Amino acid sequence: EREGGMGRQTSLNLESTTLVTNALCEALTATTGSTALTTSDYRSGAYAALEGVAIYITNKLPGINGHNELSSLQFAERDTPNIAELADKVLSTLVGSIVKDKAAATTFAADAPDTSFSLVAKEVGYTAILTWMWLSKRIMQTDAKSGYDAALNY
User: Fold this and answer.
1) pLDDT digits (tens, 9 = 90+) for 3-34
2) Which residues contact 107 (CB under 8 A, 6 or more apart)?
3) Who has the most CB within 10 Å: 59, 77, 138, 147?
């Protein structure tokens, strides 16, 4: 088990990641106030950020990308319950929030020199859900899976 500076670095890394993720989840669930993400455009930004957080966490897990030894930049096995709890919260939040967004509508600009497609928030949310489901499944904890189950049912 890691001690000293490396363990502290990882602990602070997980704490700041959790802080940002919780703030995004709170903004997605808020209905009023200055931090409420009340439009699809705002929510799509939060969905994309949450997907990025899931990818970041996944890349910090031991055993990912052929890294079996712990480095100061990886999360330790002891962090798994905290990450599982975070994944559960994010999945519950995403499933509750994505229902506010419109169904997929792709636009194609035939007269434009380059082809342009516009994604709506729902697609960005789907990608975030799938990324967090993969992370959740990878570190599945039996006591923190209601968000995973809700996402799977969705």
Assistant:
1) 444 455 555 588 899 999 999 999 999 988 88
2) 116, 117, 118
3) 147
